[in-house]
Amino acid sequence: xxxxxxxxxxxxxxxxxxxxxxxxxxxxxxxxxxxxxxxxxxxxxxxxxxxxxxxxxxxxxxxxxxxxxxxxxxxxxxxxxxxxxxxxxxxxxxxxxxxxxxxxxxxxxxxxxxxxxxxxxxxxxxxxxxxxxxxxxxxxxxxxxxxxxxxxxxxxxxxxxxxxxxxxxxxxxxxxxxxxxxxxxxxxxxxxxxxxxxxxxxxxxxxxxxxxxxxxxxxxxxxxxxxxxxxxxxxxxxxxxxxxxxxxxxxxxxxxxxxxxxxxxxxxxxxxxxxxxxxxxxxxxxxxxxxxxxxxxxx
Length: 299
Known about the structure:
The protein is of the alpha/beta class. Helices cover 41% and strands 20% of the residues.
């Protein structure tokens, strides 16, 4: 039995999610080499390569494709309408037309929706609480992923008006324009930076983390792992939990359940992670009101 794994990033960036997925499947009785073979394909941030790799998995005759985030799931769906596809890190699968609805996915795609497009206002409030004097913030996002977080961007705009914060929206389109976007952020001299789009940091982690460290900008970035890479704050769902849950979906599909019969699941918990070391390096004293709400503090 062959299980396909498709990732937009390189192998190293995807490793934590893939390992969590495989470990849970192993616990459920699906392990190499006992009748299970994982075909892992990594696109190295190349959308054209991603679509080709999705087709390769279909040609290999995999039983199911694990396509964690929006780009992978869309590429897989574009390659097949029959092989089951399970995602774990899609913001809103209805908006990007992966499924018909949460309760009735339809078709061959289902999984875990991170539902982070409802977190925009809360994230901006946390960042303002960390940097209370901030009157100007940059919002950086990848336009390739923007459809999945339109609601969140609207929430951020509305919250910024209430908090009297001027926002500089800085979109970019893939890795080729990221450096220019980072220069634009720097030229705007924001007092804080937020990046709400799920897929962005996982793909360009080192470049964005290096930038915020070099420019000494307090940042709140999704996903939670961003705080471990140098962002002062992160707030959202646990992606590793979602990967493990996706494995459970795959196990049910391998036992005969159709993807259309599996409702899209949402997280029930969102965590605040604080990088105290990064905040101290910026000369910021994290208020106790934030510390008491943190699920994890990096010192």
